[in-house]
Amino acid sequence: MNDASKPTLILGGTGKTGRRLAERLTAQGLPVRIGSRSAAPAFDWQDKASWAPALDGVGAVYISYYPDLAVPGAAEAVGAFAELAVQRDVTRLVLLSGRGETEAQRAEEMLKASGADWTILRCAWFSQNFSEGFLVESLLEGEVALPVGNVGEPFVDADDIAEAAFVVLTEPGHVGQLYELTGPRLMSFADAVAEIGRAAGRSIRYIRISHAEFTAAVVTQQLPAEFVWLINELFTEVLDGRNESLTDGVQRVLGRAPKDFSAYATETAASGIWSN
Ligand SMILES: NC(=O)c1ccc[n+]([C@@H]2O[C@H](COP(=O)([O-])OP(=O)(O)OC[C@H]3O[C@@H](n4cnc5c(N)ncnc54)[C@H](OP(=O)(O)O)[C@@H]3O)[C@@H](O)[C@H]2O)c1
Question: Where does the record place the NAD(P)-binding domain (predicted)?
Answer without folding.
Answer: 12-137
